[in-house]
Every structure is written in C-alpha cells, then in structure tokens.
Design goal:
By secondary structure, the protein is mainly α. A two-stranded antiparallel sheet has the order 1-2. Helix 6 packs across helix 9.
Length: 304
C-alpha cells in the first residue's frame, strides 16, 4: 500500500470525529436559539367531544337552546311519561308493543294517535270498550306531551298533517268527498248506519282531525295516502266538510239535510194533506139548504 493511501485513510479517520463534534454543537445551540425567541400565544380551540349532546353544539346560524327551553323540554318529557304510565301502559305496555288487552302502537302513526286522543276515543275506561267520540281528557299541553313521549315507539307515518284551508277548492273537495266519503258518511256528512257498525258524523271534527282521519284511517275506515288524495285535494276536502256545517240552501229549506228521501216524504205528506183539506173545504161550500127530491109526477112524466 502506498504512502498516499495511508495518508488519505488517516485524514478520513480524523474527519469523522470532527464532523460529529460540529453536529453536536449545532444541536445543542438550537434550543437556546428557540428560547431566545419571544413566545407567541396561539388561541386554543376545544374540540367537542363525540358524546357531547347536540343541544350544546348549535349549528351556524341557529340560536343556542336557552335554559328556559331546556327546562320546558324536560318538563314536557316528564309530563308525557307520567300520563302514559297512568292512562296507557296497562293496555299498550311500557314499550308500546301491546298486551292481551290492547294493540301494539308500533304500527300506529302519530296522526292516528293524535286523532284518537283529541277525539276522546282514547284512553278508554275498560278493555273492549267501544271507541267513539267522547269528551277529551287532556288539554293541549298534555296532548303534545303525550304524543312526544309516544313517538319513541310510534311508527313514522302517517305524520300529523298540516292543513291549509285557503289552498283548498270547494268544488274539488265536494267531488272527492262524494266519490270517497259519502257512501258511509252520507252526502251531508252526518254519518249513518252501516252493516254491523255506524259511520260517525264528520261535522264535529276539527280541520286537523278531518285530515288525520283521511290519512290514518281510524278503525273501520280506510286510509288514503298521497297517491290517492294529494295535499291539494286534502285541503279541499277539509274545506268542503267545514262548508257542510252551515251550507247555503239556495233551493229553499234544507229539511235537516237528510237527503232526497226526507224531501220526497215531506212532499207527499204535505201535498196530499193539502189536497184532502181542499176537497173537504170545497165540498162543504153551498147555500146550506138540503137538496130536495123531485115530485113523483115529474118523475113519471120524465119516464114517459
């Protein structure tokens, strides 16, 4: 091996410790330089936890829920749970799945539940009792609280409809009512007797109850979805039913709106009665002298 190669190797061996010393000095001086720089405070942002309630994380543009609103929601929840426990759980069960005394509510939508409660058909006093219109047992606040609690196990549809009578058309509502409803509820909406049951009057229902009955179909009545009666027709039917409460009888006396049978019967009774009285009155008119028989001679002369 030549002398040049030995000197080169020696130089490399001396260079390695030198480079290591330079690197150590550079690393040890970096924290000092950082310490010399003034610290700048960055605003810290807290990330919401994944399990944090949505009420405490208002979206952009939405007002935060106030303490009063939170307390009101808690009170409503407690009220609804207390009413359901008192009046409904005996027949429908704590989870709404029903018992041997009452049907399951998991297949009942909010519209039917609201209709049954606001018309007094529910709750009933005993299992098997007829579901008919009675005095409502709750005020508006209690009804809202009870429905809010029952939504935990109620079906999603049909939802409680929003009725806008101003968008309805009276003529269209009359056509739909005569085609779909008059067969049971009569053309005047007063109801009537059917085979084994009775169709109730619709004149006592509120606009919301009319729409709920159409959408949900209470027991014994079919429900009509939007594919059969759309929103515009629904508003029209409600408007027509409200019109039936005080219709304009342009043809004269409405005769209690019982239909053609009552009109024909009254026509016969009144008409025939007037004719009989007229005949009796005409027959009693005269001078008041009895009609005398002709003499016998006149009868013989007339015979010859």
């Amino acid at each position: 091996m030549t002398r040049w190669h030995l000197s080169a190797r020696s130089s490399l061996l001396l260079l390695v410790p030198l480079l290591a010393a330079v690197a150590a000095v550079a690393l040890s001086g970096q924290p000092a330089a950082r310490a010399a720089q003034p610290e700048t405070t960055q605003p810290q942002t807290t990330q919401p936890e994944a399990n944090q309630p949505e009420a405490t994380q208002p979206q952009i543009g939405e007002p935060a829920q106030t303490e009063q609103e939170t307390e009101a929601a808690e009170e409503e929840s407690e009220l609804g749970a207390r009413l359901y426990q008192r009046d409904c759980v005996f027949c429908h069960g704590a989870d709404g799945r029903g018992t041997s005394r009452g049907q399951s509510l998991t297949e009942v939508g909010p519209a039917e539940a609201h209709y049954s409660i606001t018309t007094g058909r529910m709750p009933i006093q005993a299992a098997g009792e007829e579901r008919r219109r009675r005095e409502v047992q709750y005020n508006a606040e209690e009804v809202d609280a009870l429905i809010a609690h029952m939504r935990r196990f109620l079906a999603f549809e049909p939802e409680i409809p929003e009725v806008n009578i101003e968008e309805g058309k009276l003529s269209e509502g009359g056509e739909v009512f005569l085609a779909e409803c008059a067969a049971c509820h009569q053309w005047s909406g007063v109801g009537g007797a059917l085979l084994g049951r009775e169709a109730p009057t619709v004149l006592e229902s509120t606009p919301t109850q009319i729409a709920e009955a159409i959408r949900a179909g209470p027991p014994g009545m079919p429900g009509y979805g939007e594919e059969v009666i759309d929103e515009e027709q629904l508003n029209s039917v409600v408007k027509y039913v409200l019109h039936l409460r005080d219709p304009q009888d342009r043809g004269g006396n409405g005769l209690w709106h019982l239909g053609p049978f009552a009109e024909g019967l009254i026509s016969w009774v009144v008409g025939i009665g007037v004719l009989i009285l007229a005949v009796l009155w005409i027959g009693e008119r005269g001078t008041g002298e009895p009609v005398s028989e002709p003499p016998a001679s006149e009868e013989a002369g007339a015979a010859s």
